[in-house]
Structures are given as C-alpha cells and as structure tokens.
C-alpha cells in the first residue's frame, strides 16, 4: 500500500461550551482515518456530527486536544503557526459560500494572483498569464478576470474559488459543502469540474456533504460521522450497499428508493 498523504490518529477536538461557564464540548472524539494521495474521501453525517471540525482540524485551522495529524508522515497536530507556514500552501479549503470567501473589493484576478505572489509561485511578470490559465482550467473565460465577486453567479464564483485553491498546487483540498448552495444544474457542472481537476492534478480531496447522491457520484471512499465519532469508513459502494450500522442504513435509506436509482448523477 502507498503511504497515506494524510493520517489522522485518535483525533479529539474540544470547544468551549457557550452554554456552560468553564465547560467544554467534544466535537471530535477519537477519530482515525487515512487519505491516500489522489483519493476523494467523502465525509457524511447529520448536522453537528463534526464534519467541518474534522476537515478544518486536518488542515490545522483548529488545534486538536489529542491525537496526531500526520501529513506525509510528519505530525502537524501541535506545530506553531510559523512552523505550519510551509505546509499551508499544500492544504487548501473550498467553502460552501463562495461570495463570503472572496474580498468584495478585490477583482477575481487579484484574488487568484495574491496567494500566487505571496507563496512566490510565480513572478510579477508571469502572474497575469498564470491567472488566465487558471481561469481557463476552471472553465471561466478571460473576461472574468477584472470582475468583482458580486458581478458573478454562485457557480462562476465557486469555479473561481476552486481555481484560487488549485493555483497553489495543493496536495489536499477540503471542500466543505462546496456545491450545496448551487442550483441543481450548476451543481452537476461543479461536481464534474472537481472530478476533472482531481483526475488531472492527482490531488486528494476531503469532500464534506449532506447529499449522499453527491458523495456516491464523486467519492472513492466515504466516512460516516455520528456525534463526533467515525462510525464507518469504506469504498462508496460497500458503505452504501452493505452498511454495517443501523445509523448508516437509516441515513442512506432514501438512496435506495426507486426514484433515486434512476441514473447516478446528482
Ligand atoms: N468554533 C466552535 N466553537 C464551539 N463549538 C463549535 C465550534 N465549531 C463547531 N462547534 C460544535 O462542534 C460540533 C460539531 O460541529 P461541526 O460544525 O463540525 O458539524 P458539521 O457536521 O459540520 O455540521 P453541519 O452539517 O451542520 O455543517 C457541534 O456541536 C458544533 O456546535
Ligand atoms: Mg459543517
């Protein structure tokens, strides 16, 4: 077996409980899983089960209370912000609401160019050509470069957000409900785009979704979260066709209705 890109071991994350002075709540409780290079791992489970917390902690946007986060074998669980800096480029996040993830006063070209220059991935002379190439890669014509976020549709902005993440040639992208706010027709286009860029670049993805049809369409393996614990994990067909837990069975119940069986595209 190839070495995992990301190995999470016994990960526990606690937050201050807003309802109890001095109290904490455990958002993740002893979660272990691997992500292989080039793999799309789906994270499913009901609201509050810890999906976003797991995705963000994997990228060290939260510091865990316990456990290890091995990125190519190196434990980043407790690295300082300065020590994390060289790893940040390799780990990117795409959020649900593209409008709020862009600066409203920055053009799309600037939004993509800034991290490229910051990480010294290209020179000032090259940056415009690089930005246009990235826009093309995510299916946006050059005419979008000078636009501001509010001058674009949700689908176009999500393309730009994917482009901005891809520009840094990450090894791992965490996409958190990245298509949930889009219209159904646009959703299929963005899913196809994600699948295409993943195949082309070979990056790995943790794809967080409420929508099991989407998970089935896009992901190689799927992990089912429940109250901060990992309930089961396995190849998509295995988990969806032969779930081990009653909870998973209930969660996927709707997938197997006759209407849901027609075609597997979301
Ligand atoms: N920054 C935070 N401070 C305090 N509690 C938090 C914080 N972030 C998440 N939580 C709590 O941790 C638990 C897990 O939340 P999380 O956002 O990871 O769930 P989720 O599975 O992503 O849910 P959803 O599907 O609604 O996005 C919840 O009980 C939530 O209230
Ligand atoms: Mg979430």
TrEMBL record:
Alphabetized UniProt keyword annotations: ATP-binding, Nucleotide-binding, Transport
Keyword ATP-binding: yes
Superkingdom assignment: Bacteria
Any one Gene Ontology molecular-function term assigned to this protein's record: ATP binding
SUPFAM superfamilies: P-loop containing nucleoside triphosphate hydrolases (SSF52540)
Pfam family, one: ABC_tran
Keyword Nucleotide-binding on entry: yes
Domain ABC transporter span(s) in chain numbering: 6-252
InterPro entries: AAA+_ATPase (IPR003593), ABC_transp_ATP-bind (IPR050319), ABC_transporter-like_ATP-bd (IPR003439), ABC_transporter-like_CS (IPR017871), P-loop_NTPase (IPR027417)
Gene3D superfamilies assigned: P-loop containing nucleotide triphosphate hydrolases
Family indicated by similarity: Belongs to the ABC transporter superfamily.
Name of protein: ATP-binding cassette domain-containing protein
Taxonomic lineage: Bacteria, Pseudomonadati, Pseudomonadota, Alphaproteobacteria, Acetobacterales
